[in-house]
């Protein structure tokens, strides 16, 4: 288990950050490393972002000092999306098989969560989001067949994409966690258009399925004070409640969005017209 801590940033202060400071504060460069679980504890709604990569051994999700709890999920809920080879998640003795782009919600009060790959040649990559929880909800697997699928965008504006709602309140009972997966179609590069903020929720993005040698420019900041962070495949970024969260890649890609905060209303957003961004 590896873990680190990130403070929340005041938008007035973030305006003065240089490139390296932006990356230090918001970018999560390496969620995955062999036979390890890597976690970042953020002060944005006390959201945790991380990854588990079981290669040759099982990995157990242990508590970390910031939680001051006996078990990781004593006061938390957990969302898992597999972005690698076939794997299994054992939840208090019950085994759930997860193929690529399948999700699992694990509720508050679970004692043991164990990750394993079915093959070390093509290991599973379990992307993790966790938020504080006030009550217990059942563990539930969500495959792409169970997802709410929405077609968005237009090829004329290079943002035609498929949005898969996975861990959302229409499918899974949660306290505050929501997760979904968006796939950009070939020839399309822009995500989350029009840009928006939602001051009642923070968000984290995880970019994957990006071709080797390509990059993504993730746009953040207040609508009139935008900044960018260049990102690579299998990297995540924190998005404060005051920040937009859009991106453009040099090729198409997929990304996972995870949210926590004041409500579970997916449509609760303050849209900013594209030609008003600065």
From TrEMBL:
Q: From the UniProt record, give the pathway where this protein acts.
A: Glycan metabolism; pectin degradation; 2-dehydro-3-deoxy-D-gluconate from pectin: step 4/5
Q: Which NCBIfam families match?
A: PRK00924.1
Query: What is the similarity comment for this entry?
Result: Belongs to the KduI family.
Matches recorded under Pfam families: KduI
* Isomerase keyword on record: yes
Cofactor descriptive note: Binds 1 zinc ion per subunit.
Q: Which reaction does it catalyse?
A: 5-dehydro-4-deoxy-D-glucuronate = 3-deoxy-D-glycero-2,5-hexodiulosonate
Ordered alphabetically, the record's keywords are: Isomerase, Metal-binding, Zinc
Which residues of the sequence carry a binding annotation for Zn(2+)? 196, 198, 203, 245
Instruction: Tell me the cofactors it needs.
Output: Zn(2+)
Which InterPro entries does this UniProt record tie to the protein?
KduI, KduI/IolB_isomerase, KduI_N, RmlC-like_jellyroll, RmlC_Cupin_sf
**Record's HAMAP family?**
KduI (MF_00687)
Name the chain's protein.
4-deoxy-L-threo-5-hexosulose-uronate ketol-isomerase
- The EC number of this protein is 5.3.1.17
Q: Which residues form a coiled coil?
A: none
Class of this enzyme: isomerase
Entry's Gene Ontology BP terms: D-galacturonate catabolic process; D-glucuronate catabolic process; pectin catabolic process
Please list the GO terms describing molecular function: 4-deoxy-L-threo-5-hexosulose-uronate ketol-isomerase activity; zinc ion binding
**Taxonomic lineage of the native organism:** Bacteria, Pseudomonadati, Bacteroidota, Flavobacteriia, Flavobacteriales
Q: What does this protein do?
A: Catalyzes the isomerization of 5-dehydro-4-deoxy-D-glucuronate to 3-deoxy-D-glycero-2,5-hexodiulosonate.
């Amino acid at each position: 288990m590896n873990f680190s801590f990130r403070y929340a940033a005041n938008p007035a202060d973030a305006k003065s950050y240089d490139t390296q400071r932006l990356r230090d504060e918001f970018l999560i460069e390496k969620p995955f490393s062999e036979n390890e679980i890597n976690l970042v504890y953020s002060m944005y709604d006390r959201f945790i972002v991380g990854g588990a990569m079981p290669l040759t051994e099982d990995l157990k999700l242990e508590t970390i000092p910031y939680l001051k709890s006996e078990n990781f999920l004593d006061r938390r809920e957990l969302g898992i999306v597999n972005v690698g080879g076939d794997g299994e998640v054992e939840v208090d003795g019950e085994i759930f098989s997860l193929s690529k782009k399948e999700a699992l919600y694990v509720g508050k009060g679970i004692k043991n969560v164990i990750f394993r790959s079915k093959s070390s040649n093509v290991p599973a990559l379990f992307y993790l989001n966790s938020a504080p929880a006030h009550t217990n909800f059942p563990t539930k697997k969500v495959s792409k067949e169970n997802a709410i699928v929405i077609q968005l965008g237009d090829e004329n504006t290079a943002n035609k994409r498929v949005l898969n709602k996975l861990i959302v309140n229409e499918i899974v009972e949660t306290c505050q966690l929501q997760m979904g997966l968006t796939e950009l179609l070939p020839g399309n590069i822009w995500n989350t258009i029009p840009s928006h903020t939602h001051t009642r929720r923070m968000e984290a993005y995880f970019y994957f399925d990006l071709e080797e040698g390509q990059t993504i420019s993730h746009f953040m900041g207040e609508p009139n004070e935008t900044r960018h962070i260049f990102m690579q495949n299998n990297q995540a970024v924190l998005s404060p409640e005051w920040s937009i969260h859009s991106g453009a890649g040099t090729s198409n890609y997929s990304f996972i969005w995870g949210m926590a905060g004041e409500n579970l209303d997916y449509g609760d957003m303050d849209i900013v017209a594209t030609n008003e961004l600065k």
